[in-house]
Structure prediction request, 223 residues.
Amino acid sequence: MLAALALVAAGCTGDDEPKPGGPLPAADGLLDDAAKSAAEITSTHFVVRTEGQVPGLTVKGIDGDLSLQEKKVAAKGTATIELMGNQAEAKFVLADGTLYLDPGSGTYQKIPEEQAKAVYDFSAVLDPERGVAKLIGELADAKTVKQEKVGGIDAYKIDGTATKESIAGLVPRANADVPVSLWVTTDNHQPVQAAATFPGEQKGKLTVTLSKINEPVSVEPPA
Prediction:
């Protein structure tokens, strides 16, 4: 009985992080911290990867930087887009509501904001009402399953279920609830990765990885 009480007390102590192999912290507390942390992100390096068929997404991969200042999103990087069965890599800059896209010609083309969202809605990633923060805050049946490294950083992996509404900002055409895995850092419980698996004949998977959180990002329209 004393041993059991000691284990419970150890699990409830927030001052010291559990060591690998020890008791894992409850998912609810981790998610609360992660949701608050995600809502305070103003800039990040982000990587998006898709496998199989993800509903409504033509983007197969994105590697870029995001900045959110006064609810205005700026971004720059490289995207791999699939059109008519072919993949093409394009450089992009999102500034002042306009997406500039260079499909490999060396010249950027202007794409209005509404059309830009059809490629990918970058603003959703850091939007507290639509993006990663919303996904974290509404994750159901969550359970901390392990401690492991993500990009060399110690993190807790949390498994749960996201409704189609809570993931709609990242995948607008999601038509069903989906299983989601979330990784948060062991020290300050900051989200560093989320992965969602979509049902269907060709199972699709979307993975979003964040790094260099709140480090300065400068984005200017291409000359």
